[in-house]
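In the current project phase, the collection of sequences with tokenised folds has grown. A sample record is quoted in full directly below:
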Amino acid sequence: MNMRFFSLKNIITFMGILLGLSSCIKEEAPNAEADILSCEVEGNLLIREPVISNHEVKLYANSWNDLSAIAPRFTLTQGATIVPESGTIRDFSSPQTYTVTSEDRQWKKTYTVKFITSDIATEYHFEHIRFHEYGGRQYFHIFYDHTVDGEEMTWGSGNTGFLITNSTAPAEDYPTCQSKNGYQGKCAKLTTRSTGFLGKMFKAPLAAGNLFTGTFEINMANMAKSTRFGTPFRKTPLALTGYYKYIAGETLTDKNSQKVPDQKDECDIYAVLYEVTHEVPYLDGTNIKTHPNIVMIAQLPQGKQTEQWKRFSLPFSVVEGRKIEPAKLQAGKYNLAIVMTSSKGGAQFLGAVGSTLYVDEMQLFYQ
């Protein structure tokens, strides 16, 4: 089953199969999916695992690489075909498009495949969004900013996970959405939401609003591992600044939906620079602040309630005497993760429904 779009209907069907509720076995119909599942490039050209979204494949490389004759190979959903053919040599000095056709020949999907050789954007105004779309319907907001070179940087969020339990919700009711009431213009609005009956059944009773550099790939076995934090960064970060306001929800609860007495929810804003290795291609919700590959961290000291816009300036500090190795930095061997969430304990499903964090006009300083 394709995890890139996992609807409530898919979940219910999947659960029914697990419980043995299927009525009778019929001959399997041709597959109706038209997705790229994986991408490979020969040699040591890529410095990160490819990032594949609904209509895009991002391939990370260093700026000095020759991209004029590359032949990526794709793994597709069962029976699907791709044009141009997998393994075709193409000039990736500019983005290239591919068309995937489903096995039943009824569905086509166009993917843009591009190499990313520049660092992430360093100014974040949260003015730009697009919708996650599927089947002609718009679901939730996706934020994006631009680098100084004009490259688009897409923010990750956990909205895809919320879609599983609340597929009929309007975009404004998802944990992460855009608000018109920013410090300047529009802003990011992150709200801790209830995931209802299905969420409680999976021991994930709430979804904290979050926004981060990286991607979200649903891991049903451990939802905290769904967040894949960080993207390549070849400079030394100095500080992260911006504006926020925060209203904590009324009742703090744990993963069992039990009230946590005498405590209030807190937000969190932080950034982590960490080394990427073959064994550790990314950090996730289980280790983003604790993994030994972390070299530097910047963090909001307290995420207490503040109903007025408040400026923050978070300096990066070295963790436990670790240091950045210049050769690794130049070669793109470090990831930078910038993370914001409406519930500090959201990865462990500790939070208060209704907690709302607004963030705007952020900037990353570096040398």
